[in-house]
Structure formats: C-alpha cells, structure tokens
Description:
- By secondary structure, this protein is of the alpha+beta class.
- The chain contains seven helices and 19 strands.
- The two termini are 37 Å apart.
- The model is unreliable at 1-21 (pLDDT under 50).
Amino acid sequence: MHLNRNMTAMAAGTLAAFAQTAMALPPSTVPDITIKVAGSTIQDNNIVALLGQICKPGSLDNYKDSDASGKGTYYKAFFCTIDSSKVPGLTLKDPALLILKRNKSGVITGVYPLLEPTKPIPLMGINNTVTAGGASQPQCTASTTANSWTCRTDRAGDIFNATPDMAVADVDPQLMRGVNYASTIDGITFNQPTSALVAANLTVINAGAVMQNTPVTLDLRNALQLAQIEQGALPVDCHAGDETERCMPSLSRGLIASLFAGRIGHWSDIKVESTAGVTPLTHYNGGPAGDDLVRLCRRNRGASTQASFNAYFLNIPCSSSGVTPVEVSNPLAGPIVATPPQVTTTADCLADFND
Length: 355
C-alpha cells in the first residue's frame, strides 16, 4: 500500500465531534472524512477486510459503477461509520468515512498522479443528482443485495477529476517503469517514474499479501492432465477434467516464461516425453485439429498483475538480462496476444479463447 507523504496528518484529523449511529449510510449522507484511492483491483478484498475491523457493525455500504464493461470493475466506493475506539488519534467521534476507489487502468492510476499531483484523474462520486423530464435522478440506486448500491457514470458530474490521496498496489511502485510504463491515463500524459522520484515522494507501507497463479483455458488444463498422467507426473487413476488437487497439472516457470516472451507460437512446438515416446502436446487435446496457435491473455502496461508477472517470470525490469514480454500478435507464426484492461476480465479472455 502506497501513501502520499501529505496524507500523514489525515490519520489524526482535527474535526468537530459529531455522533454517528451504527447504521447503513445512503449516498445522500455527507461524509465526515473522504479518502480518494486509486490502484489495484486485486486489493479490494483487503480494503473490505480492513473496514470490517474498524467500521461499526452493519454500517458498511458498498458502491460500484454500472457500466456494461465495468460492473464495479472500474469504480467502487465504500461508506461506513468508523468505530473511533478502534482508530487511535481521531478527535471526531465515530465519523462517517467515504472511500472512493478507482480501479480502471491498474496501479499506475494511483502511483503516477501522486508523483505528478498537478495532473488529476477521473474518479467516481456517489451523490450526483440530475434532473430529467422534471424528475430528479440520483446517481446511485440500491440493489437487491443489502448494503449494496449501483452507480451510473455517464452523466455530467458523475465523474470528477481529482488527485488520489493514496495508491493501493500489489507491487513496489519502483516496478512501474520500462516494460511496465504506460504513458497515459484517460488521455492524461505522465512521465516515466524514476527510482529516485519514487523514493523521494512516496512512503511505502506493506499491507495484506496477495497470492496469484497462472490460469489456463479448460482445454489446455485437460491436455496437460493427460500428458502428465502418461508421463507419470500425475497419479494413474486421474483423468482429464478431474478437479481434485492431486490431479491438477502444472506448468514450469521456464515454460511460462517462454510462452509469455513469445518464443513458442504453436502448442505443437511443445513436446511431451514419456514411455510412449516424444509427442506434441496437441496430441492430448482431444479437440479439432488445425489451428494450434498459442493464445495469451496478458494484462495491460501499468497493471501491477503484469508488472509482478514480468518481474517473477521474466526478470524485467529488475535485471539487465531480463526478457521483454510479448505484446503484439503474430497471426501467422503465433502467439496471439490479448490484453484485458482489468484483472477481473482475464477470465472472459480465457473463456473466449477456449471457445
């Protein structure tokens, strides 16, 4: 978790005392404290877990955008009554805390604006009311799930420009350079950060850890199962489609690196050695013959998921011997590369390729 140094004083905000009952907070409630956060989607569960510890029971409301492409993926908000006995240093009694969270475009949306605070980025509010046909239309409406709201983002005032107060990430901000550098956020151009600039302007505080893995399509999982059963790497009583842990196949770190470096264009280029001899991986697919181009779903530049992947598997930008990840599709020799804009849409990418 990365905080702007200027936010230090906020932890001990000096606000007039005001009692707040422990109940859900609708969007019309005026918050006592508003914190603007931008960055990684994958840390949202940790934010909710933290608020579950410091908010009064039953007071936490969750807001998400209603865009067809977003569905809460691009913008979120969290609104609750803080139990001031659990947050030392507050002079306000049980304040109403509103956290506005931007996830769109990944971790750089938090890191870059903190390094260049004169360049605000779009954030979603929750209480913008517009008039249409003589009737007031609130921005957010209650959903069927308790303490849950859905908010539009397409009317004037729904989105506003501001500099985040803090960034949330699952990588060190030092990594957001080189192959991880994305120059623009919603059309706003930012300079590539340097290690010195990050060290001088950001205070890095470690928070909850996140474990990530490398998902594959169902067809590839089944082919790997059959191949590794034949190799003896998996128990002989396993079968393709077996969902048990003991029957899960694996990919080596070296093979994953080769795939995402673009060095393997066809699945038939991968050979399986077993007692039956040397066989292309495609022999185990069981699907229609023909197009066996490797298809990759990787994240966009500026996403911490891709940055952590590049560092772990490809040693870049950490080492001069690091390998550049493939970004452009080769429709003839492979691989085909897709770049989902959010971590939550990577599953859609894999499903599309599997189909």
